[in-house]
Amino acid sequence: MSGTAIADAAGLGTIEIKAMKDHGYSTEFAVGVTAASSTLGPIIPPSLPFVIYGMMANVSIGALFLGGVIPGLFMTASMMIFVWWCARRYNMGRDQVFRWRVLGQT
User: Which range of residues forms the domain containing residue 68?
Assistant: First the structure.
């Protein structure tokens, strides 16, 4: 994450969209998810807009970062739940099921 929505969409978007299309997601859905998730870049630290605003307004950058954590986590959880719901409802592609044991073995 770069801290700017445009850079996140442009940089990671091509990788994300290709991966979602490879797993059976429609192009429209993949682009929508990428566009929506790129808005998290300016909210979750490190955030370039927070640094610029903090310097210009003489406000604590640390306080701005802390202020972005809860909304950022809420937005992330909301987007994850929505994508999970859409994927189940419309029978979109799936990857391997996550297993804690496999993670521990790696």
Answer: 5-105
